[in-house]
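Data availability (excerpt). The following record was deposited with the supplementary files.
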Amino acid sequence: MTSREVAVLLRDVWKSYMIGRDVVTVLRSVNASFYKGEIVGIHGPSGSGKTTLLKLIAGLDRPDRGEVVVDGYNLNMLDDLGLAMLRNTVVSYIPQDYGLIDELTVWENVELPLLLAGASRDVREKRVKDVLEYIGLKGRERVKPLTLSGGERQRVAIARALVTTPTVLLADEPTANLDWGNAVRVAELFKRIKEDFNTLVIIVTHDPRILEFVDRSLNIVEGTLKEITPR
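Predicted structure:
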């Protein structure tokens, strides 16, 4: 582990949803610390709250009770604009469907967070060029995502998440639709990002192939996080 500095802190986090007329509690008094420079795998059955947990950390949803602190920012204290700024600078979220805009080129997809953050043209060009080369997509800048393989699309999504050099990188089922070779390449890429940038990487996954690449593995059991592999 390169650092023991806390990147994400969850204090007594609860989250419920209305499903029909029923209130369904998916997270119950979740307490956890996640550190810079580690990869954490989060497991659990469908509907157990894994994606909800990622969205709370990304500021895409708010807890009913409790606190979510990301890189020192208490998300309860931020308004919608503040949360949007956090997502452009501190935390990046990769959804299961990659979240790419098919009408844009690879370059334009990766550049988008920098445009939203108001980065200058010179900064955008350097960062996009550097991250595409780092991620192994040099030469694919001008193609559209629909022409790419699943593994390449996932790497575009990772490049877009990485271009702002976030402290926290969240990935929802990043290998679910990939064959063995591409799944391993994506997992190895997350490991390299962790080591090169001291990033906290949190991966929600059902994929047992990911276990060998994580530093810690946690399971959501009845709405609470349980560590299933010791540090």
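Summary of structural features: The longest strand covers residues 6-19.
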